[in-house]
Design a protein that fits this description.
The longest helix has 17 residues. The protein has 300 residues and is α/β, with parallel strands linked by helices. Helix 8 crosses helix 10. Helix content is 42%, strand content 14%. It is globular and about 70 Å long. The chain has a 5-stranded parallel sheet with strand order 7-6-5-8-9, sandwiched between helices. A 4-stranded parallel sheet has the order 1-2-3-4, with helices on both faces.
Length: 300
């Protein structure tokens, strides 16, 4: 059996198509896994000559794995999509922890993702400038971890992005502190997750699927302040919909953060909900779902 992750770039998909069609030529069953969103947008905007290639290749797979039920429609161009497209959510290796006590006096907010405008980091900076007004007497720390990436915005270089970030952060006064950590991994990332009180990712990134950083935050029993974008709503426990914010809305982020800090019972409820939900994204559950799917593909 052939298992591959597919891309949505022209050159990348042509490579994937050759692998898929070559495998089927020798009657090898194929399972493809898509780890993002916006595949249908890639298909609709692809050159006219490429669209039949996409359909041909995907119609020669046994299964196509999407990250969530809301992302099934990304493969509506495939024949028999209802049976062919299967859902296996993302996972992470972050150790699960018990629910957290509510913050008291100091609120630590963590943004952990690529620093792209479409990921919403500027909106988090807007929230940092506002949250002190909503939490008089509190110390608030905003920790940003990730690498600057250019996207669909006015920045010309990543150096310009970082300079803009540092300038905006320097304008935030009062008892609010902004820390830029850069790229983190291993124990450094684990420590940031352990020390945080709230995770925030107000993304509207085009290719977003199910950000693993949100799963890491839930596994760390953190309330998450996020947007209802792509497959994100399916990651959240039901009650955590109260923390969902519109995109481009720093004031809404500041409001949710202030509510979590000032209402201990609400914070405790959200942390417990995160901890319970994280069990659904365990590595054992993820690998078990893939094993069952591969076994079914091999039998057909």
């Amino acid at each position: 059996m052939l298992y591959i992750t597919i891309t949505h770039s022209t050159v990348g998909f042509l490579r994937d198509a050759l692998l898929i069609l070559g495998a089927r030529l020798f009657r090898v069953p194929v399972v493809v896994h898509h780890h993002g969103g916006a595949f249908h947008q890639f298909y609709e905007t692809a050159p006219r000559w490429l669209r039949p290639v996409i359909r041909l290749a995907l119609n020669h797979t046994r299964f196509i794995i999407a990250l969530g039920e809301s992302l099934r429609h990304e493969f509506s161009m495939v024949s028999d999509a209802e049976a062919r497209v299967r859902v296996v959510p993302n996972t992470c290796t972050t150790p699960a922890i018990a629910p957290r006590p509510p913050p008291a006096g100091t609120l630590r907010v963590l943004y952990l993702s690529n620093l792209m405008v479409e990921k919403g980091y500027l909106d988090v900076l807007d929230a940092a400038a506002l949250v002190g007004q909503r939490l008089p007497g509190w110390n608030v720390e905003f920790h940003f971890a990730g690498k600057f990436h250019l996207g669909g915005d006015a920045f010309r270089t990543t150096e310009e992005m970082e300079d803009n970030f540092r300038h905006r952060a320097s304008q935030i006064g009062g008892a609010t502190k902004v820390v830029l950590h850069g790229v983190v991994g291993g124990e450094e990332k684990a420590e940031l997750l352990r020390r945080a009180d709230v995770f925030v990712l107000p993304t509207y990134y085009r290719d977003e699927g199910q950000p693993i950083s949100i799963i890491e935050a839930l596994t760390s029993a953190l309330p998450v302040v996020v947007t209802a974008h792509r497959g994100i709503p399916e990651l959240l426990p039901d009650d955590m919909g109260l923390l969902v914010v519109p995109s481009h809305d720093g004031a809404a982020i500041a409001d949710r953060l202030a509510t979590l800090a000032s209402q201990p019972r609400f914070y405790t409820h959200m942390s417990r909900a995160a901890s319970r939900r994280s069990r659904d994204f365990s590595l054992d559950s993820h690998l078990g779902a893939l094993d069952r799917l591969h076994a079914e593909a091999a039998r057909r």
